[in-house]
């Protein structure tokens, strides 16, 4: 008889493996085929959405050769970034670096897509390069990659779209939380373990096989981000001393909500609890997006004094501390198959995903719920995700008629193929499209953010589309992904 583990999401104990699998499907899987629902509305025609079809065409690979080329990693040429990226990600990544540098003089600037000449991809395939161009030398330069699709933590899937057409160029999660639950409930290891091997670069990133990160990086993480105290003249005329931690910015959400309110294209916007910090990567550290997202989740727990806040006294826990807690969770049998798939985590640059974040929450005895979204019932995965996020925020303010609503809801941990982010809100535009609002840990707050915070939201009088580009993820940018996972 198989020893059935309790549900890893809610802890409920079930009598047998079949009951556990069914419980996860019915209670924790948003698009489960085992749950009877009312008929959902038909998918709205995307032909009516401005630029939708054109954007989709731009994101499609041209042939099988280009798809093979998309497996290559390249070092971001932006000075101080250090991120290893798939070639298909670089153009958008550089666009967002540009948004980090927005200035007050660009308040009314409406950016236009860069149309620079194609650049030889081989020049960027520099995984072991010791130097990178300066910030000024990379400004406005884009790399024409074979494909605009993203592809790590991924697998290519030939699957039929909701409209009945085959999509060979959309990508899905290569390591799904739901598959792990199903395998464990039936007493068998995951596919990677049955094959006698650990997960590789497609799931764990370009440093999947390293035993230890470079010594300089380990010391940088061990020391923690630089911290300084500065004097500020408050709006009440009094001086205050503020503690500034490099890479961490508080007070961002009121600025973003003000910019949403001023944007005439926005019909409605929702934001999460304003206590969450925006946390970006340190200089040259490379990945750690999953850990930076966990830090942002913890910052909400600390700031809002949410359940479990006493587990996180003092400053935001560092990457090495989070790695240690996840390994201690494995020691206690929590999501322990991850250890066999990943190997040693502490002191490495291996990527983590939903299962490791879930392990940390369970280790801290903090209740969370995992959900998955895929193509289902005539709607794409990204549409189902946006539907759920909109309902998540709207449910906390059902009668609020304001254009912009700041709720007390926690931020959401989002895992998509290749990357994870923290969802802080959603915008519904007047043309019917939607933007996810996110803190992306690959980027720090723009350089002018602290000045805007010091002046206060009411000092902002015009919208700034370029500034908001760092935080908006339009639905056309989410289309290429077959799967999403969230923790709420």
Automatic annotation (TrEMBL):
Ranges where the C2H2-type domain occurs: 5-33
Region (Disordered): 30-66, 103-170
Record field: compositional bias (Polar residues): 104-115
Keyword Zinc-finger among record annotations: yes
Key words of the record: Hydrolase, Metal-binding, Zinc, Zinc-finger
Residue ranges, compositional bias (Basic and acidic residues): 30-40
GO molecular function terms noted in the UniProt entry: hydrolase activity; zinc ion binding
Pfam family name, one: Peptidase_C78
Entry protein name: DUF1671-domain-containing protein
Organism: Trichodelitschia bisporula
């Amino acid at each position: 008889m198989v020893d059935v583990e309790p549900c890893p999401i809610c802890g409920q104990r079930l009598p047998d493996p079949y009951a556990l699998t069914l419980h996860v499907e019915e209670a924790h899987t948003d698009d489960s085929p085992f749950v009877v629902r009312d008929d959902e509305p038909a998918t709205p025609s995307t032909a009516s959405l401005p630029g939708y079809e054109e954007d989709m065409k731009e994101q499609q690979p041209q042939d099988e050769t280009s798809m093979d080329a998309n497996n290559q990693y390249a070092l971001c040429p932006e000075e101080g970034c250090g991120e290893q990226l798939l070639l298909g990600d670089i153009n958008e990544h550089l666009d967002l670096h540009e948004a980090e540098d927005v200035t007050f003089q660009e308040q009314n600037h409406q950016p236009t897509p860069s149309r620079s000449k194609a650049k030889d991809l081989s020049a960027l395939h520099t995984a072991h390069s010791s130097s990178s161009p300066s910030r000024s030398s990379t400004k406005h330069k884009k790399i024409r990659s074979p494909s605009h699709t993203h592809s790590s933590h991924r697998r290519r899937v030939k699957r039929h779209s909701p409209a009945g057409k085959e999509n060979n160029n959309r990508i899905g999660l290569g390591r799904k939380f739901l598959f792990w639950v199903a395998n464990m409930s039936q007493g068998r290891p995951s596919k990677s373990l049955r094959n006698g091997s650990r997960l590789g670069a497609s799931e764990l990133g370009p440093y999947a096989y390293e035993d230890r990160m470079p010594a300089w990086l380990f010391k940088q993480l061990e020391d923690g981000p630089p911290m300084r105290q500065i004097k500020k003249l408050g709006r009440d005329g009094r001086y205050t001393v503020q503690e500034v931690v490099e890479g961490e910015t508080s007070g961002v959400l009121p600025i973003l909500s003000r910019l949403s309110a001023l944007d005439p294209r926005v019909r409605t916007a929702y934001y999460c609890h304003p206590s969450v910090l925006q946390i970006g990567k340190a200089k040259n550290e490379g990945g750690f997006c999953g850990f930076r997202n966990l830090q942002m989740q913890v910052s909400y727990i600390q700031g809002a004094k949410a359940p479990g806040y006493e587990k996180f006294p003092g400053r935001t826990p560092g990457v090495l501390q989070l790695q240690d807690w996840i390994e201690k969770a494995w020691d206690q049998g929590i999501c322990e198959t991850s250890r066999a798939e990943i190997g040693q985590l502490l002191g490495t640059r291996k990527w983590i995903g939903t299962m490791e974040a879930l392990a940390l929450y369970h280790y801290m005895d903090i209740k969370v719920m995992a959900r998955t979204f895929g193509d289902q019932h005539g709607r794409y995965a990204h549409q189902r995700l946006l539907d759920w996020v909109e309902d998540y925020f709207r449910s906390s303010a059902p009668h609020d008629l304001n254009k912009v609503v700041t709720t007390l809801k926690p931020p959401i941990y989002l895992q998509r193929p290749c990357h994870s982010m923290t969802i802080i809100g959603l915008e519904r535009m007047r043309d019917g499209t939607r933007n996810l609002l996110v803190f992306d840990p690959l980027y720090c707050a723009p350089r002018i953010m602290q000045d805007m915070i010091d002046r206060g939201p009411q000092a902002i009088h015009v919208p700034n589309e370029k500034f908001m580009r760092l935080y908006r993820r339009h639905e056309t940018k989410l289309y290429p992904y077959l799967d999403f996972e969230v923790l709420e």
